[in-house]
Amino acid sequence: GAGVSQSPSNKVTEKGKDVELRCDPISGHTALYWYRQSLGQGLEFLIYFQGNSAPDKSGLPSDRFSAERTGGSVSTLTIQRTQQEDSAVYLCASSSGTRGTSTDTQYFGPGTRLTVL
Amino acid sequence: KNQVEQSPQSLIILEGKNCTLQCNYTVSPFSNLRWYKQDTGRGPVSLTIMTFSENTKSNGRYTATLDADTKQSSLHITASQLSDSASYICVVSEGGSYIPTFGRGTSLIVHP
């Protein structure tokens, strides 16, 4: 079956521009995560969606970052007024757990590599 | 602050050889520890998961160990293959939290 997909795979943008990154989770998965992976760093949690509950936005680094999940499926991460320090790989993951427990296996997409010039 | 430290940062071995990667953590209360494999340009894929009561878990040529008392884990790769070249990431979850803490990974290169 299809795994988690993300688009675009690569995005190059100029400083100050807005970008949208898309994630299609595995069908039926209620939980969706966004992470950021900077060079030489561990994955950094950004935001978590679980079903119809309010998302956990505690990892978003600034108010330039926002995300939404429409219809409990596709999610979009938006970065406004991009800065060079936003350059990183943005990974999306989904899991089937309905309680959001830490033992739920997360399935990752291939990521979007964002480069801000 | 929860932390996960991995060593070595990078490792180069010859095909067919064994290797062991290390992970130390300070996450508390502990729930579980996973090892992920991340191929270049791909997302991480879970290899093993261990809870507090488990001290070893195998997945083919991969064997993970856990010492919850010393808060250490290792991933042993037996008879390495070229396809084992990847980044191996240790991930520790806190009890009651769905947000795991990721290590920076060990970059493994297997040479023919």
Number of strands of chain A: 10
- Rg of chain A, Cα atoms, Å: 14 Å
How is the main sheet of chain B built?
6 strands, mixed
Subunit arrangement of the protein: heterodimer
Q: How would a crystallographer describe the biggest sheet of chain A?
A: 6 strands, mixed
Strand proportion of chain A: 35-45%
The string of secondary-structure elements of chain B, in order, is EEEEEEEEEEE
Radius of gyration of chain B (Å): 13 Å
The coarse silhouette of chain B is globular
Principal-axes geometry of chain A comes out as globular
Tell me the total number of β-strands of chain B.
Answer: 11
Total DSSP helices of chain A:
0
Specify the helix fraction band of chain B. under 10%
Number of helices of chain B: 0
| Span between termini of chain B | 41 Å
Structural class of chain A: mainly beta
Proportion of strand residues of chain B: over 45%
Q: Please write the string of helix (H) and strand (E) elements of chain A.
A: EEEEEEEEEE
Describe the structure in your own words.
The complex is a heterodimer of chains A (117) and B (112). Chain A is mainly beta. Helix content of chain A is 0%, strand content 44%. Chain A is built from no helices and ten strands. In chain A, the strands form two sheets. In chain A, strands 2, 4, 5, 8, 9 and 10 form a six-stranded mixed beta sheet that branches. Chain A has a four-stranded antiparallel beta sheet with strand order 1-3-7-6, with no helix packed on it. In chain A, a hairpin with a 6-residue loop joins strand 4 and strand 5. Chain A is globular. The N and C termini of chain A lie far apart (37 Å). With 112 residues, chain B is an all-beta fold. Helix content of chain B is 0%, strand content 58%. Chain B is built from no helices and eleven strands. In chain B, strands 2, 4, 5, 9, 10 and 11 form a six-stranded mixed beta sheet that branches. In chain B, strands 1-3-8-7-6 form a five-stranded antiparallel beta sheet, with no helix packed on it. Chain B is globular. The mean pLDDT of chain B is 94.
